[in-house]
Amino acid sequence: MLLPSSIRLIESKEIERAIYFLADEYRKSGRNPKPVVFHSLRVAYTLLEIGYRNLPIIAGILHDVLEDTDADSKELRKQFGPEVARCVESLTENTAITDAVARYKELYGRAIKYGKDACVVRAADLLDNLRYFWLVEDAAKRNTLFKKVRYFIEYARVLQEEPILRMLQKNLDEISCAFEHS
């Protein structure tokens, strides 16, 4: 991964630590069969390319680690501090909520309550997830993914002027147009 020349050395070291932590946790206890490490790196790199720095980049790398490994918030606090841990917690699904729609609405609500940093990570996550839209064979699941993204865009008012939200909207519009014409 090439880092923009404007990134500071200290940021680079923190990014490297987060990548190592993510890869190590997946190596030890990863439960998701999808290529989560690559996904997490794409999320962080998208944010980095746009110009976001520090917290959203680290949280972007770590955004799935609580859901998909045995890592816990206590370990995140110890390794990366309370702000990173709180941000990642706000991006972690509450699996006690069994209804899928209620679960993603609650999740987005927590990200929005946390603030802009969590919301830009969620937007980059959804943007990357749209890469796989056409691989989802089940029409109901595709529709749910589409609704999740549209709901987030409408709900995330805190991001109205953010370039990541415009990118997400553009991508969703392109998929919608292509889907209607296929």
Provide a descriptive summary of the structure in words:
The protein has 182 residues and is an all-alpha fold. The chain has one domain (9-180): Hypothetical protein af1432 (Orthogonal Bundle), CATH 1.10.3210. It is built from ten helices and no strands. Helix 3 crosses helix 6 (82-90) and helix 5 (73-80) packs antiparallel against helix 6 (82-90). The longest helix is centred in the N-terminal third of the chain and has 21 residues, at 9-29. The N and C termini lie far apart (35 Å).
Give a quick set of tags describing it:
mainly alpha; 0% strand; Hypothetical protein af1432; 71% helix; 182 residues
Write the layout of secondary structure elements.
Layout: H1 9-29, H2 36-50, H3 55-62, H4 65-68, H5 73-80, H6 82-90, H7 100-114, H8 116-129, H9 139-155, H10 163-180
Helix pairs in contact: 1-3, 2-3, 2-8, 3-6, 3-8, 5-6, 7-8, 7-9, 8-10, 9-10
Quick recap:
This protein is mainly alpha-helical and 182 residues long. It has a single domain (9-180), classed as Hypothetical protein af1432 (Orthogonal Bundle), CATH 1.10.3210.10.
Q: Class by helix and strand content?
A: mainly alpha
Which band does the percent of strand residues land in?
under 5%
Number of domains: 1
Q: Overall pLDDT, averaged?
A: 89
Roughly what percent helix?
A: over 70%
The SSE order reads HHHHHHHHHH
Radius of gyration, Cα only, in angstroms?
16 Å
The CATH topology label is: Hypothetical protein af1432
CATH level-four homologous superfamily name: Hypothetical protein af1432
Number of strands: 0
Put simply, the count of helices is: 10
In the CATH scheme, the class would be Mainly Alpha
